[in-house]
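Write out structure tokens for Large ribosomal subunit protein uL24.
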Amino acid sequence: MKNVADKPAKLHIRKGDNVKVISGNSKGQTGTILRVLVDKQRAVVEGVNMITKHVKPSAANPQGSLEKREGSIHISNLMVIDPKTNEPSRTGRKLNEKGKLQRYSKKSGNFV
């Protein structure tokens, strides 16, 4: 039987968000989240933290190759960009007009 503690925590980011990297080698870069790895607390951001991947030779690609792709970044190093002000901001959750919990920017108070 699963406990409530086994359930992954809600994250402050989700796929499709525009984020800014606030620390690490890619500090200052912005991009859109392509994928969120909930169990590892990491995210893949478009055009950020590029790594080189070796591709094995295959029938379609007999030579093999080196491929550049995005590596994952820990979510603590990412901040959501408020769409109205284009500034990175912390997020919180509060009820909207319909009574549903929704994320909002703590800087401006706008829903994200």
